[in-house]
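Sequence design from tokenized structure. All designs in this work follow the same two-part layout: the structure record, then the generated sequence. An example of the structure record is given first.
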């Protein structure tokens, strides 16, 4: 079961990236239709990237901890 963890993390990150890409496409489409909204695009990108990096860091940490202690939890 341990070898499935990196695959699950990769799938989760792919789903997250796909959703983000779709959301950014919607934002660009709305921005073209409505004009300038007043929010800074650079700060928005920084916030989104920091969120993704944080999610990846948490998922990676959980995968490492799970892998390390899985045998101990199962009584091996």
């Amino acid at each position: 079961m341990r070898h499935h963890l990196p695959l699950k993390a990769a799938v989760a990150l792919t789903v997250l990236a796909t959703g983000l890409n779709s959301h950014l496409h919607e934002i660009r489409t709305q921005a073209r239709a409505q004009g300038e909204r007043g929010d800074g695009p650079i700060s928005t990108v920084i916030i989104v990237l920091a969120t993704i990096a944080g999610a990846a860091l948490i998922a990676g940490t959980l995968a490492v901890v799970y892998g390390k202690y899985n045998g101990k939890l199962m009584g091996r």
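The chain has a mean pLDDT of 79. We note this feature because it recurs in several other targets discussed in the main text.
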